[in-house]
Amino acid sequence: MRKSTRIKVGVLAGVAALATATAVTGPANAAADGANGCLTLPGSWKVVDDNTGETFLGSYHGSAYATAGTVNFTSPNNTTTASHGEWKQTGCGTYSDTDTALLLGADGKANSTITFQANITVTGRNTANFDFVYKIHGLDGSFVTGGASTGKGSRIGVQPR
């Protein structure tokens, strides 16, 4: 092998190794630290309601550098469907979301909706505080009831086997 070929092969191997290292380590770090140095929201979260102790599981969709995206949450009961909504960044490490789910009656059919509006502060790489209100409306849009609560969130990370 000629010297120039060996140098090219060596350079390409070095670039490939750097690209692999970036691909492996980049997203894990980027998921918690955005381009502006702020803690980021995208990812999956386990949120425990401070008032009821109930656990909700949610995912904030978007790249590590996204400032807005979609959100889905599941409820701890079988009378609430998965919610669907959107989130956006409101400041460095702060976010808001709005998501809506159907509430099911004893017959299994939707009889009302519940809408959550949350202000979220990401307090660490894997922790966040959730401050939210909810409103329940009949399918005809009439207001039924509402309330407010807070919750503590922890990021659901990869757990090696």
Word description of this protein:
The chain has 161 residues and is of the alpha+beta class. It is built from one helix and eight strands. An eight-stranded antiparallel barrel has the order 1-2-3-4-5-6-7-8. β2 (55-60) and β3 (68-74) form a beta hairpin.
Task: Order the strands across the largest sheet as they lie in space.
Answer: 1-2-3-4-5-6-7-8
Helix content: 10-25%
Structural class: alpha+beta
The tally of helices reads 1
- State the major sheet: 8 strands, antiparallel, barrel
Query: What does the average pLDDT come to?
Result: 84
The amount of beta strand, in percent, is: over 45%
Q: What series of H and E elements makes up the topology?
A: HEEEEEEEE
Query: Which descriptor suits the 3D outline?
Result: globular
Task: Write the topology of this structure.
Blueprint: H1 3-30, E1 43-49, E2 55-60, E3 68-74, E4 84-91, E5 94-104, E6 110-124, E7 127-138, E8 143-155
Antiparallel strand pairs: 1-2, 1-8, 2-3, 3-4, 4-5, 5-6, 6-7, 7-8
